[in-house]
Amino acid sequence: MNELVARAGPDEPMRRVRLLPCGDLATLVELPPDAGVLEFRADVAALGLAGVGELVPAARTLLVHHSAARGPVVRAALVTLPLREPDPIATTAPVQVSVHYDGADLSGVADEIGCSVEAVIAQHQDPTYIVAFCGFAPGFAYLLGLPSALHLPRLATPRTLVPAGSVAIAGEYSAVYPRESPGGWRLLGRTAATLWDADLDPPAVLTPGRAVRFVAA
Amino acid sequence: MIEIVAPGPLATIQDRGRPGYAHLGVGLSGAADREALDRANRLVGNDAAAAAIEVTLGGLAIRLPSPTTVALTGAECGGAPGWDVAVTLPAGSRFALDVPRAGLRSYLAVRGGIAVPAVLGSRSTDTLGGLGPPPLRAGDLVPTGSAIAGRVSGEVATAPAHPPALRVVLGPRADWFKRKAVTALTGSVWTVRPESSRAGVRLMGPELKRKVTTELASEPTVPGALQVPMSGMPILLGPDAPVTGGYPVIAVLHSHDLDAAGQLRPGDQVRFHLW
Lengths: 217, 275
Fold this sequence. Notes:
Number of strands of chain A: 15
Strand order of the largest sheet of chain A: 7-15-8-9-12-11-14
Structural class of chain A: alpha+beta
CATH class of the largest domain in chain A: Mainly Beta
Radius of gyration of chain B: 19 Å
Oligomer: heterodimer
Distance between the termini of chain B: 44 Å
Number of domains of chain A: 2
Structural class of chain B: mainly beta
CATH superfamily of the largest domain in chain A: Cyclophilin-like
CATH architecture of the largest domain in chain A: Beta Barrel
Low-confidence stretches of chain A: 1-14
Low-confidence stretches of chain B: none
Mean pLDDT of chain A: 91
Strand content of chain B: 25-35%
Shape of chain B: elongated
Distance between the termini of chain A: 37 Å
Order of helices and strands of chain A: EEEHEEHEEHHEEEEEEEE
Strand order of the largest sheet of chain B: 10-17-14-15-12-11-18
Number of strands of chain B: 18
Shape of chain A: elongated
């Protein structure tokens, strides 16, 4: 475990968290780029602070819900918590997601980055992804690990309907659409795997911190 | 059992919402005016976790196949058998709510609560996330349950007065905006646009101009956040808003004024002031 100690030297930027108010019942913690959001979330949870509610991770931030009365105490604890680098090794076995690579944008992605469809598929399958956070829709997991060659912006015009199970990419992320919805990500394929079931608890298979591998169906 | 004769523009089942799943992308949902829901449940002696019907701009018409104790709260509509008071109606009773003179959302609680199956611990309809029961339709038979905590109240409950201006806490991204944007936020009258929904109240007023124009990495949001998309016109996020967003939030409503925001209706004018 690497601790990132705050340094104030002239060459070293302050690697500290920023605490941003989010109403009277939550504080948004902005982490420096080299600190792991999920590691920080685990460390905040381990503190077991009274008055702290949900801890919601996103790309570079963690939202800490707390009671109004405990806000000052919680903020003081958050600002002094040591930071850790992201842990690249997942602690759990990866979830295997079988993909039919027949997405509507597959050939377009290949054209745009100047390689074959087979090369796009190979690159998409290469890494072990980590669920960074969920958002956009229930069970929609943002998977980190996409090779940089596949980093492409969202479609200029989002589709009004993306089928459930669509495997897609946008920016530095890959994702699986948990249910039919509008969406602007580029579709590489689809999976028949059930990754979201509201009747189960937890309802999502892809929870923050889970490792994921895509394999050809 | 309640028979829905007509749902009006939008009638959904709501309780206190679905906390605890935001990290899985599940929004809070639940009654937009929580205090009015709680009051309705209290009047009929229900458990605070009981579900009720949230009515949008009146229009709900129901028939009661068996004797039922009900209470209506929130935006006051004509045509009701009583307001802010529990009333027991005989079998075969019907009533139809008129459009409220002011406010947007009314709550119909029945003794025992609405007993549709819970999804992730809540019976609330999340209109954006697609969780919980679908919005009510004409002909629906809505089951009632046994979520009873005590006796039916004999009191007339008093609705709290909503403040003329809503309190906001600046941040988390007020520093992404030009200084003038912050003064415009608190110094202007904002008009509620018709495209508003349970996901967000769209506001019209002076453009809130950004200082930082780079793209914001998705970050968590909360109901009550004033999120500002590229148009510069803020959206006051509602209970069904997504849990993360890629637009900066200039300020967040104080929790005490969330219920007042739940009653903003298209055409209403609203002001914000710093808490």
